[in-house]
Design goal:
The protein has a single domain (about 5-135), classed as Cytidine Deaminase, domain 2 (3-Layer(aba) Sandwich). The chain has helices at about 5-20, 45, 55-65, 85-90, 130-145; strands spanning about 25-30, 35-40, 75-80, 95-100, 125. It is built from 5 helices and 5 strands, in the order αββααβαββα. α1 (about 5-20) runs parallel beside α5 (about 130-145). The chain has about 140 residues and is α/β, with parallel strands linked by helices.
Length: about 140
């Protein structure tokens, strides 16, 4: 199993979100080469603006491990985290964040242009399966118009 495999799993979560009428964003948390948590957007379903894929996956990972820190874990997410999710990732001290595509409208870089909002030890990688991720999002919004 490698980064591409785990991002494919995040994309599967995004497709579940889309089937449920949610913005298609998915996430998985991986520790020791095993998925320990999954999440997809559930904002509409839960009527909760904080129910982003990352937040759901993080909460599941914390509960799974019985810990509030994920220093050795990696989050794979299909779209650049927003400022709220980046803040949660900071506090989790997650070891690595891999996201597929940038989100120029709502991503953390829109606000945090000069500095990274993540913990100083967090490694960030961008672009893995980005085209697939953006195609899902574009398809979702094209159907809504």
């Amino acid at each position: 199993m490698n980064d591409e495999y785990f991002m494919q799993q995040a994309l599967r979560e995004a497709k579940i979100a889309m089937e449920e009428g949610e913005v298609p964003i998915g996430a998985v948390v991986v520790l020791n080469n095993q998925i320990i948590a999954r999440g997809h957007n559930q904002v509409e379903k839960l009527n909760d603006c904080t129910a982003h894929a990352e937040m759901i996956a993080l909460t599941s990972a914390f509960n799974n491990l019985g810990s509030k820190y994920l220093m050795e874990a990696t989050l794979y997410v299909t779209l650049e985290p927003c400022v709220m999710c980046a803040g949660a990732l900071y506090w989790s001290k997650i070891g690595r964040v891999v996201y597929a595509a940038s989100d120029e409208k709502n991503g953390y870089k829109r606000v945090a242009k000069e500095t990274s909002p993540f913990h100083p030890k967090t490694k960030v990688e961008i672009g893995l399966l980005g085209e697939e991720s953006l195609a899902l999002v574009k398809s979702f919004f094209a159907k809504r118009r």
